[in-house]
Amino acid sequence: MIELSNVSKTYFSNNKGSGANAVHALKNATLSVPKGTIHGVIGLSGAGKSTLIRCVNLLERPTSGSVTVDGQEMTQLSNAALNRARHRIGMIFQHFNLLTTRTVFDNVALPLELMGQKRHTVRDRVIPLLEMVGLADKANQYPAQLSGGQKQRVAIARALASKPQVLLCDEATSALDPQTTSSILELLRDINHQLGITILLITHEMEVVKSICHRVSLISDGELVEDAEVGDFFTAPRTQLGREFLNDFLQLTPPKELIERLLDAPGENTHPVVRLTFSGDAVSTPLISRLARECGVDVSILQAKVESIQERTLGLMIAELLGSPTQTQQAMHYLESHQLQVEVLGHVQRND
Amino acid sequence: MSSAMIDLILQATLDTLYMVAVSGLISTLVGLPLGVMLYVTRPRQILAKPVLNQVLSIITNVGRSIPFIILMVAIIPFTRMLVGTSIGINAASVPLTIAAIPFVARLVEAALNEISPGLIEAAQAMGATPWQIIRKVLIPEARGGIMTGLTITVVTLVSYSAMAGAVGGGGLGDLGIRYGYNRFNPTIMLITVVILVVMVQGFQSLGDYLVRKSDRK
């Protein structure tokens, strides 16, 4: 439904277009979002997320590359054709962008007015939309009288008014508190489910990706560095940045006093401290006790967490492996052979 | 006070109201589109035309920098061409209008500056044409600010119209100068000032009311 291929966007700080002051906001981004799926793009601020999503409906015109939405090459369209194409692409924003001088009803009606639809057609479309987002009773209120979550619901209803096939969400929950965030995400999931709308969202929150996305891309410094099923991304991110996002989200970092004692290289009497990530079958296997029996290594668990991500279970653990260097080495091989990810965080001096 | 005097004051009040109304109305009709043009033709705006924007901006600045009393005298040939005479309230309304147009334009532009760029972006994402954005987003969203600007303009016109006496324009300011100041009649002076104060108060209250009505923030 949405295809970006080799899309680049370069900003020039002067009009001459000399390379010296060029900012490469997006570098050769290639992305494909199949019909009916929810695709998330996650990245730190300034990574190019906003530019990426704005290139889909050409709010930003790519410097090079091709953008196809529903089989239509967007960059080749005339102004009039582009406006028609935009009627098929809804968009919601971090700061809602509702018109302050229009009532809730009139805000939702705006895209239909722009399309030149008749008053009664507009009414027949707006009322069910307001019911869908649960704001039928607020039709005659003004945005200033609504809470943040309610404003975003109005914005969602407005984005859906023209019956789009694609919904773009620009940090749609970043200005909302956690409870409101989850209710908005639930609404987006329902919309995707019931109406089959393809959703592309950008966010810096792993929670958003975890709760509604099917696939996720990681963007860093204008480049899409990782693209994975959400389950895979949360169990085994392939890039360092992906791991950082995951660890930050899971908040599984070694205790502070341990970090201070952590040595980079193994010494005379040291034990490795490892972070274990296990998913799938490994979760239900009693691997730790087997480790003790089969490798003669004792495991001291420092921190552990189990997360459930889209019907997949993800276990995480920070542990100290107690044994001789050969034994611990063997233990790590054993764990890796059972589909566990083993990451050595460092080594600690034995206390005894 | 003689009834002739009262008639004179009444006539002067009506003259002032007439000059303010005519110049206020016409300068709004011209200044509003000009202000919108100044805004939408800026670089990176919805109808970006940087050269046109520069030209409009310079013309507007020239209009705003000429002192009113000089403008009034300088455009006498133009005034005569337009209304057939260079004296009287119709003649005085011409320079008042010319002076107010760039004033209105800049105030409209300032009101449009207050609109969050996100609203324009949202409208563009909905497939709105530039004209639809102007009509359905910019003007309604800036209505409060535009009303504030027009109120300031009308109040300024009241005080400018007092200078219209210099071209035989009539009105309260003229009356105050000729009868109050030149003929040492402090009562007339006081009455004209009081009427002007009341007039300004009235316009300001009306403006405030309209701003409140159009603002939903």
UniProtKB/TrEMBL annotation, chain A:
CDD domains: ABC_MetN_methionine_transporter. GO terms for cellular component: plasma membrane. It comes from the Bacteria. GO terms for molecular function: ATP binding; ATP hydrolysis activity. The keyword Transmembrane does not apply. It is a peripheral membrane protein. Keywords: Amino-acid transport, ATP-binding, Cell membrane, Hydrolase, Membrane, Nucleotide-binding, Translocase, Transport. SMART domains: AAA, NIL. It is found in: Cell inner membrane. Belongs to the ABC transporter superfamily. This is Cell division ATP-binding protein FtsE.
UniProtKB/TrEMBL annotation, chain B:
One of its GO terms (biological process) is D-methionine transmembrane transport. It is found in: Cell membrane. Gene3D superfamilies: MetI-like. The chain crosses the membrane at residues 17-40, 52-76, 82-105, 145-168, 188-211. GO terms for cellular component: plasma membrane. Keywords: Cell membrane, Membrane, Transmembrane, Transmembrane helix, Transport. The keyword Kinase does not apply. Coiled coil: none annotated. It comes from the Bacteria. InterPro entries: AA_ABC_Transporter_Permease (IPR051322), MetI-like (IPR000515), MetI-like_sf (IPR035906). It is a multi-pass membrane protein. The keyword Membrane applies. Pfam families: BPD_transp_1. Belongs to the binding-protein-dependent transport system permease family. CysTW subfamily. PANTHER family: ABC TRANSPORTER PERMEASE, D-METHIONINE TRANSPORT SYSTEM PERMEASE PROTEIN METI-RELATED. This is D-methionine transport system permease protein MetI.
